[in-house]
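FIELD: query
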Amino acid sequence: LGSALGLNVTGLAMEDPVVPPAQPPEYTSPEARAEVLEQTWAEQTLANDTQQLEQYEEVAYDVPHTLKISIEPEDVKEMQVINPALSVYVATEEGKMVSALGDDSDPWMCTASVLSGPGGDVVGILTVPFEKGVATFTDLHIDAAGSDYVLQFEISYPT
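FIELD: result
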């Protein structure tokens, strides 16, 4: 063997051949191979649903009724950011603050506008999300000097 391959053979080892695979089983239908359970799928689903209903806890949600301002501006100057920032919250009919308005991925939104005044407009970031029940307007200013401005706040999302 060594002279045929042009090699110097110094040793030779032999191993048993690989065992051929076993014959596959004869074909059987899925029904014949199926495992027979004590309950049908529908019965299992009903049992799971019943179990979940038994674990059900009733949750009472506060019903939003009105928007209230929590921090009012004191000395607002033309084209200066209103400081302290205006904060608005939603209250129930009893006056309790509603802290759950949407969720982090889809919060309720509040929009500010001028309801009345000597002709100026509110500018800056006019729509902000409610966070833990409070909408805080950190970048609002009035673009014209004057007194007796009335700002309006409304829930703009969801509509």
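FIELD: remark
The mean pLDDT is 88.
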